[in-house]
Amino acid sequence: MPVDLAELQSMIEAALPGALVVVSDEDGGGQHLRAEVKAPQFAGLSRIDQHRLVKAAVKPRFDDGTVHALSVKTEPS
Amino acid sequence: MADQELKSKVEELIAANPVLLFMKGVPEAPRCGFSMRVVQILDSMDAEYGAIDVLPALQPLREVTTEIADWQTFPQLYVNGELLGGADIIQEMYESGELAEALGLEQPEVAAAAPAAAPANDLPAQSPPLQIE
């Protein structure tokens, strides 16, 4: 199943209302995805908890095997 | 559900080692670029850490760390009993100086984007890898 970057982006946006989300495919082959997320919900959270929120938002695509690796960069907004 | 016996063993190791890295391969020979990155960062800071090679029991350990820390990818660096992060987080925290703070160490003077690979003849002393049956 091809990776749908727009879908991943909207999954993260839906989980974190008000977030600025950019999902990119670093090598063009769908194997190295990267999500940069700025969200108000991150304020006061440890980095690991910020990442947990992002990973949880796209978990269905990990579970169904569409996504193998997602590198995440987070920042409170 | 994860193997509860393995889970207890992992919990004991996390409790017994103030800095513990779950990685693919061993510090002397990482088998994955992300694990290698974390090893290079820790070594550049002269950090003392225990390391566990997850490859011999990858799936069972994935299940265990999912239950313990809600995290399934490796590497994972635990500091004082808590998961600090995987490669991305450790790299970011290294660059910002937060990692040195978390480990109670001096920030190396050259905290470059990625530490250069240590020359083979200059490997800092390391604790031997821990074994999980």
Question: What features would you highlight for this structure?
Answer:
heterodimer, A: 77 residues, alpha+beta, GMP Synthetase, Chain A, domain 3, 3 helices, 3 strands, B: 133 residues, Glutaredoxin, 4-stranded mixed β-sheet, 40% helix, globular
What does this structure look like?
The complex is a heterodimer of chains A (77) and B (133). Chain A has 77 residues and is of the alpha+beta class. Chain A has a single domain (5-76), classed as GMP Synthetase, Chain A, domain 3, CATH 3.30.300. Helix content of chain A is 35%, strand content 26%. Chain A contains three helices and three strands; from the N terminus they run H-E-E-H-H-E. Chain A has helices spanning 5-15, 47-57, 59-63; strands at 20-25, 33-39, 70-76. In chain A, strands 1-2-3 form a three-stranded mixed β-sheet, with helices on one face. The longest helix of chain A has 11 residues, at 5-15. Chain B has 133 residues and is α+β, with helices and mostly antiparallel strands. Chain B has a single domain, classed as 3-Layer(aba) Sandwich (Glutaredoxin). Chain B contains five helices and six strands. Chain B has helices at 4-16, 33-44, 58-69, 87-96, 98-103, and strands spanning 19-23, 25-26, 29-30, 50-53, 76-79, 82-85. A four-stranded mixed β-sheet of chain B has the order 4-1-5-6. Chain B has a two-stranded antiparallel ribbon with strand order 2-3. Chain B is globular and about 45 Å long. The model of chain B is unreliable at 117-125 (pLDDT under 50). At the A-B interface, helix 2 and strand 3 of A face strand 6 and helix 4 of B.
